[in-house]
Structures are given as C-alpha cells and as structure tokens.
Amino acid sequence: LGLILEFGKVNLTCMGLLDAGNTETYGHPVPTPVSTTCEKGPFIIVTGHDLHDLKMLLEQTAGKGVNVYTHGEMLPAHAYPELKKYPQLKGNFGTAWQNQQKEFDNLPGVVLFTTNCIMPPKPTYAGTLYTTAEVGWPGVTHIAADADGHKDFSALLAHAVKLGGWTEEKAGEPLLTGFMRNAVLSVADKVVAAVKSGAVKH
Predict the structure, then answer these.
(1) What is the average per-residue pLDDT within 176-183?
(2) Whole-angstrom Cα distance, residue 81 to residue 75?
(3) Which of these, 93, 98, 120, lies nearest to 109 by C-alpha position?
(4) Cα 55 to Cα 73: distance, rounded to the nearest angstrom
(5) Residue 82 has what pLDDT?
(6) How does strand 175-177 pair with strand 32-34?
(7) How far is CA 170 from CA 28, 31, 37, 165, 167, in A?
(8) What's the average model confidence in pLDDT over 14-31?
(9) Rounded CA gap, 91 and 93, in Å?
C-alpha cells in the first residue's frame, strides 16, 4: 500500500510538471472550434503530441503560403492561445493515428511525425513522410535537432510547395477541443448542479 501511495504521489507530480510545461509556454487551453475543411494550396500535416515541434514549424512556415493541419493526438493544439494565433494553422485533417495508412494514401502534401506511432507506410505516401524526435522509419527522412535544440523544417516546406496541395476546397464539419482543466473547473458548479438535476446524465 505504501508503494502504491508513493507511486500515485509521484505520478501526480509528473502530471503537474507536464501540464505546467505546456500551459506556462502556450497558455491555458480554451474551448475552441476546429475546422476540418481542407483549403486549396500546399500543406503540411503534423501528427503526434509535441507542441514544441509544432510551434517551431509554425514559426518557420509563417508568411510562406503553406497551410498547417493537425492530425490525431495533435488536435488539442488548436486550443492553446500561443499556437492558435498563427493564421496558417488552418484546422485538423483526418481522424486517429490508426487510420493513417488510409488517410495519408496519395496525399498531395507532407506529413511530420512527432511523438506518435508510425505504421508501416505504403509506397503511395512513404516519400512524403518526415519524422523527428523518437519517431523514425527506414527510408523516411528524419529531422534531428541541432546542439541548441533547433530543428530545420525547410525541407518539409519546399516539399509541400513542390507537391502543390489540394486543388480544390474540401468542406468538413467542425470539431471542438480545449475542454481542459481550467475550462472545466471554471464551470464546475454548473456541471455539478446539472448532474444533480438530471440535466446531465453521462
């Protein structure tokens, strides 16, 4: 029991550090609608969890005419104030990581894998993938950080421009994200009251 309680305390401390690492850098997430419409033009899709990689990519694509879309677990990035201020962060493409082989098939853009699961890529899109950090795959270009932790994403940018992206807009229904700790706790009294009254049952 003592070990289990100690484990719980350490786990809570680690979660607090991870939360602080994101919120102190990018602000507290706020409820945000996220477009799933694919706009015309060149694009880069970012999948995974690494907000720092996404921020570096957004800085390097600013004003370059290349749109950036999230995929899979990167969806919540749209709710962080310091990330959502970049106009080229257009929305979210696709669904979950396990659908990547279908969703990335013959994609007219490039995909950056941050800390996420990469499935064996099909020949129809293997040449448009890039990996970074812990992710890698034989034959896929890997972007490593330099001594200062900077990553050069210019190869992705040039590749996306060369591919050209979507030739016409593909409309999609918006998603919602950003219902994190602060957002939920700010209305905790209303949620509890709704549960007690039966207005909220699930």
Answers:
(1) 92
(2) 14
(3) 93
(4) 15
(5) 98
(6) antiparallel
(7) 31, 24, 6, 12, 9
(8) 95
(9) 7
The mean pLDDT value for 75-99 works out to: 97
The pLDDT confidence band at residue 112, using thresholds 50, 70 and 90, is very high
Number of residues in the chain: 202
How high is the pLDDT of residue 202? 81
118 vs 108: CA distance, rounded Å: 19
Token match 């330099």: residue? 146
The pTM for the full model equals 0.91
Chain center to CA of 196: 35
Distances (CA, A) of 183 to 29, 30, 65, 102, 200: 7, 6, 33, 34, 17
Alpha helices in the chain (DSSP H): 2-26, 51-61, 81-84, 100-103, 154-163, 181-185, 188-197
Tokens of 81: 């104030």
